[in-house]
Amino acid sequence: MYETHYHRASSVQDAVSRMEAAGEGKYVSGGMTLIPTMKQRLASPSDLIDLRHIAEMQGITVNGRSVRIGAATTHYDVASSAALKAVCPAICHLASHIGDPHVRHMGTIGGSIANNDPAADYPAAMLGLAATIVTNRREVAADDFFAGLFETALEDSEIITAVRFDAPAKAAYQKFANPASRYAMTGVFVAKGDDGAVRVAVTGAGANGVFRQAEMEAALAANWSPDALATISVDASDLLSDIHADAAYRANLVKVMAKRAVAAA
Amino acid sequence: MAKVTMTVNGRQVSGHCDDRTLLVQFIRENLGLTGTHVGCDTTQCGACVIHMDGKSVKSCSILAAQAAGSTITTIEGLAADGELHPVQAAFKANHGLQCGFCTPGMVMTAVDMIRRHQGQLDEATVRAELEGNICRCTGYHNIVKAILAAAAEMSGARVAAE
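^ inputs. structure came back:
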C-alpha cells in the first residue's frame, strides 16, 4: 500500500472540510473494497477520511412503511434489523448474503452504493425499491444515481448520508453468486408497490452496471407470477462476458433469477 | 505516523505506526501477538479474523488507525486462567485442525458465530457461516463438528447457569 494520511471525521461537515483540504482524498467507511484495492496499489489516495464514526450517518428508522437507513449502517445491522425485516425482508435477505460474516460486520450500505461495483448487491435493491439516495447536498432518485461501471451521480466531496424508500407490497432478491468471490454473477431484485407498479433491477450482468428490465416489469405488472416471464428472452448484447459466464449465459441467468425472485416474494 | 491506542485482550496498548499500517501488522509486529495469522492477505481466507468491539472482522483489511479506540480480542485473549476456551477445547477434542494455520481465524469465527446464534446452530448454518474462512487441510468436516460440539456445550452451560 502506498503512503496515505488517515483522518477520522466527527461529522459530515468535518468530513467534507477534510476532503476539500486533501490532495487526492477518498472517503472510507467499512473499507471492505477500498482497503484491499489500496493494498493492490490499484488506488492510492493521499488522504483517507473515515466516515464510520459519524453518528448522524448511523442507524435504521422505520416509520410505518417508510424506511431510512443511515449510509454508515453495516450489512450486518441491515440483515439483523427486526424493524426492517417486518416491512421489507427482501433487503435484510440481500444484506445477509453479501460477502461473508466478517465483511458484513464492516461493510456499509453507503459504501456499496457509492462504489457502484457492477456486481454489487445493494445497487439492485436501490433501483428495485425506487429508493432515494440522500447526500449532504441533495436527494437523488436511484434511477438517476447509478451512471455506469463504478460511476455514480456523486460529485467531488459529496457524501451519501442515508437512503430512503417506501417498503413495497412484495419484494425479493435472488442472486447467482460467483462460487469464489460471492459477488453476483447475476442478481435480480423484484418489487411490487402498493399501487401495483413493478420494478425489476438486475445487477452483475449489465455491461454498464445495474439496470432495470422493462419487458419483465410490464409482464409482471400484468401478471405477478414466475410464469409471466416464461416467454421473455433477454437480449444478451449489453451484458457482461468474462471467464465465469458469457453474455448468453448471463442473459439466461437474468430470467432464471427473476423467476426465482418472484416466486420468493 | 499515527499514534494508535486500543484495548487488546483487556489491556490498553499504544504504538506508533504508519497511517497505512494494517491492523494485523500492528497486532503481530507492534504488539508481538503472532497468534493472528496472515494467510491470503486479500480478505478471503479468514486466518486474520479477530473481534473488534465484539464482532468478528478481518484484520488484514482494516487499518490500525481505523481501529484506534476500539476493543480488540485476539486468539491469545480467549483462554482464561490457563484453561482453553470451550471452542478451543472442542477443536482439540474433535481434531478440528491439521496444520493449524487457519485455526486462530476459525476459532475466532466460531466464537462470534455461537454468540450471534446464541448457541442454536445446525450443520448447514455452520457451513454457511464459514463462508469467509478457508482451510486447505481438513475438508472442514471436523471444524464443523468442533463448532457444533462447542455450541452445544456453551448453550448447555448457559442453561445450567440460568
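Chain B touches chain A at residues 2, 18-20, 22, 41-43, 46, 49, 52, 55-58, 61-63, 65-66, 68, 109, 112-113, 116, 129, 131-133 (CB under 8 Å). Chain B is about 35% helix and 15% strand.
thumbs up if we can close this ticket
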